[in-house]
Model the fold of this input.
Amino acid sequence: MKKIALFIFVCLLPSALLAQTKTTDELQKKFKDAFTLFFYKNTLRMFNQTDSKEFDEMIKNIEKMKFLMVDKSKDSFGPAEYKKLKGGYASEAYEEIMTSRFDGKTFDIYLKDKKGSSLGTVVLVNDSTNLYVLDILGTIDIRQASKLFSTLNGNSDIAQKIKSFVDNGNKEQKHAKKIIIN
Done:
């Protein structure tokens, strides 16, 4: 019986360690049209098209990351929802460590570094049209948060290809819906 319990514990442990925050998961469920991507360390390395040692250093402590983008105009996401979102991270023992502005965007960075829990970092990027969430299992140098976001948001060939792929997929999906309806 002990062997079975140990086997189950060992099997479930990796999934528990890779869990994203409950607040991010709830946000994704609430806004089903949100654009979501998952990145692992090797996937993030693909963004380093110039073999930059600085970029490799920036992502070295990231095990997994969820990138979530909410179109605030379509999903009617306002200041009250943003305040509630920030409160959700605080209730999960994330501590707000920095707020800054960069290129017309507000960056709120949260860190979870408690004994007995895995390290986590959440970067909220808020502007007039979109909310971006970088939910990271691991840590990043907070001084580099805006650079990581910029890289993921379109300063590389791969990011542009991902956006094109998603846009084409949405067009094909809409076309498929029209075919089904007609």
In short: The longest strand covers residues 62-71. The beta strands are 35-40, 62-71, 95-102, 105-112, 120-126, 130-138.
